[in-house]
């Protein structure tokens, strides 16, 4: 029984870490741009397809590179490419909605997500079918004095390091100061010789790259990747950010842990819980928003008209 509880706690922390990597991207983009980038989940799930594409192209060209070290190297390249993809989408599409009504940006990014999924489905070899995705890390490791699967330990530690570096960047670096200045008042930031366009592009790169890490670990956790995985991870990541309070990165982490905890609990205790887990998850989201519309750590903004 103790081993079962320990396994469920490990699953909770692993899923919570993966969800948090996607959720903080939603909160970061909303906090800076005040735009709900609903296709962020689809951008994040481009990374495992990019990694597999690199394996098939470069690996085959080099005589079939398939070692774990090579897969990790391809994953790092995929993270960088996903970050650049986020910047490209901002330049081509999203920047046109920065001053538009929120509903226009929401609809546009929903449509953009559909476009990305369909591009994968039609351009990636056998894109409509599931593709096996390897464990990025194998074996066992010691985590807080306990022997656990190395993959779970790595996912948790990578999430902690990535989010910690993000907080340090936002609070201790010049770029972080510029991001916070633009998020508070773009016009005042311009008067201080800060280029909002560059800040937006840097923010999109950071948010997309962190989301890409979550996409890679999510696919590795599931053992496969599908073109429509981004729907689930996108909705869950967005819901976690909403539960915690859009624009609050600590809130996004708390929301991710709450959702992953409920997800794990339902699968462990409810008969056929895997089929009903999202029902309970979104009931939680509805319940939080009914009693705390701004989210757990969000602040209600009053507009004077």
TrEMBL record:
Family matches, as CDD domains: TM_PBP1_LivH_like
Record-linked InterPro entries: ABC_transp_permease (IPR001851), BCAA_transport_permease (IPR052157)
Record's keyword terms, sorted: Amino-acid transport, Cell membrane, Membrane, Transmembrane, Transmembrane helix, Transport
Source domain of life: Bacteria
Transmembrane segments: 12-33, 45-65, 71-93, 105-124, 144-170, 199-221, 233-262, 274-291
Localization terms from the record: Cell membrane
An example molecular function term from Gene Ontology annotations: transmembrane transporter activity
Gene Ontology CC entries for this record: plasma membrane
Membrane topology: Multi-pass membrane protein
GO BP field: amino acid transport
Family that this chain belongs to: Belongs to the binding-protein-dependent transport system permease family. LivHM subfamily.
PANTHER family: ABC TRANSPORTER PERMEASE PROTEIN, BRANCHED-CHAIN AMINO ACID TRANSPORT SYSTEM PERMEASE PROTEIN LIVH
Name of the protein this chain belongs to: Branched-chain amino acid ABC transporter permease
């Amino acid at each position: 029984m103790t081993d079962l509880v320990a396994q469920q706690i490990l699953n909770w922390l692993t899923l919570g870490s993966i969800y948090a990597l996607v959720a903080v991207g939603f909160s970061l983009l909303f906090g800076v741009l005040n735009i709900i980038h609903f296709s962020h989940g689809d951008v994040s799930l481009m990374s495992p397809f990019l990694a597999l594409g690199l394996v098939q192209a470069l690996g085959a060209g080099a005589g079939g590179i398939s070692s774990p070290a090579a897969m990790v190297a391809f994953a790092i390249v995929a993270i960088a490419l996903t970050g650049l993809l986020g910047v490209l989408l901002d330049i081509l599409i999203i920047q046109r909605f920065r001053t538009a009504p929120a509903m226009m940006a929401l609809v546009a990014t929903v449509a953009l997500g559909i476009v990305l999924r369909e591009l994968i489905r039609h351009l990636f070899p056998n894109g409509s079918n599931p593709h096996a995705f390897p464990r990025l890390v194998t074996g066992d490791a010691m985590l807080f004095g306990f022997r656990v699967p190395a993959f779970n330990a790595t996912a948790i530690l990578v999430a902690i390091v990535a989010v910690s570096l993000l907080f340090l960047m936002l609070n201790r670096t010049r770029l972080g100061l510029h991001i916070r200045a633009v998020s508070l008042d773009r016009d005042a930031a311009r008067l201080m010789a800060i280029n909002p366009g560059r800040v937006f592009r840097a923010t999109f790169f950071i948010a997309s790259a962190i989301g890409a890490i979550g996409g890679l670990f999510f696919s590795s956790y599931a053992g496969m990747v599908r073109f429509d995985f981004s729907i689930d991870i996108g909705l869950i990541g967005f819901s976690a950010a909403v539960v915690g309070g859009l624009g609050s990165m600590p809130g996004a982490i708390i929301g991710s842990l709450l959702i992953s905890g409920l997800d794990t609990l339902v699968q462990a205790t409810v008969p056929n819980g895997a089929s009903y887990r999202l029902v309970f998850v979104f009931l939680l989201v509805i319940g939080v928003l009914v009693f705390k519309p701004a989210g757990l750590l969000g602040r209600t903004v009053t507009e004077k008209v």
